[in-house]
C-alpha cells in the first residue's frame, strides 16, 4: 500500500457508516489532539488516488449530496470497495 487517508472516526448514521467504513479504535494523543488509529485507510475515490485530505476534497469537489461514489480502502491488509451515498458536507470549524 502506498499513500492513503486514515479514517479516524465514523459518525453514527453517516453515509460512511451505512457503507460499512470503520473508524479507529485505539486513541493516540499527539500534542493537544486525539486521533483514533486502526481504522480503514481510503486510497481512492471513483478511481482517483487519495493520499491526503486535499486529495479527498479534489476527488469530491464536483459531486453533490445524494450522489454515489466508489471508495477503495484497506482494512488491515485487505483491499475493498464500498459505494457511498454522499451526505451534506460538514460545516468548517
Task: Summarize the structure in words.
This protein has 93 residues and is mainly β. The chain has one domain (5-85): Roll (Pdz3 Domain). Helix content is 14%, strand content 38%. The strands form 2 sheets. Strands 1, 4, 5, 6 and 7 form a 5-stranded antiparallel beta sheet that branches.
Characteristic key phrases:
Pdz3 Domain, 14% helix, globular, 2 helices, 5-stranded antiparallel β-sheet, mainly beta, 93 residues, two-stranded antiparallel sheet, 7 strands
Task: Describe the structure in brief.
Helix content is 14%, strand content 38%.
Give the strand content. 35-45%
Structural class: mainly beta
Q: What characteristic shape results from the CA principal axes?
A: globular
Largest sheet: 5 strands, antiparallel
The mean pLDDT is 93
Structurally, the number of domains stands at 1
Q: Report the C-alpha radius of gyration, rounded.
A: 13 Å
Order of helices and strands: EHEEEEHEE
**CATH architectural designation:** Roll
Number of strands: 7
What's the structural blueprint in terms of helices and strands?
Blueprint: E1 5-6, H1 15-19, E2 26-30, E3 33-37, E4 41-45, E5 48-49, H2 53-60, E6 68-75, E7 78-85
Antiparallel strand pairs: 1-4, 2-3, 4-5, 4-6, 6-7
Amino acid at each position: 500500500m502506498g499513500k492513503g487517508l486514515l479514517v479516524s472516526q465514523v459518525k453514527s448514521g453517516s453515509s460512511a457508516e451505512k457503507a460499512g467504513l470503520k473508524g479507529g479504535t485505539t486513541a493516540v494523543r499527539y500534542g493537544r489532539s486525539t486521533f483514533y488509529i486502526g481504522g480503514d485507510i481510503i486510497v481512492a475515490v471513483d478511481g482517483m488516488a487519495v493520499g491526503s485530505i486535499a486529495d479527498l476534497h479534489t476527488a469530491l469537489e464536483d459531486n453533490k449530496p445524494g450522489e454515489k461514489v466508489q471508495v477503495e480502502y484497506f482494512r488491515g491488509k485487505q483491499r475493498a470497495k464500498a459505494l457511498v451515498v454522499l451526505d451534506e458536507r460538514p460545516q468548517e470549524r
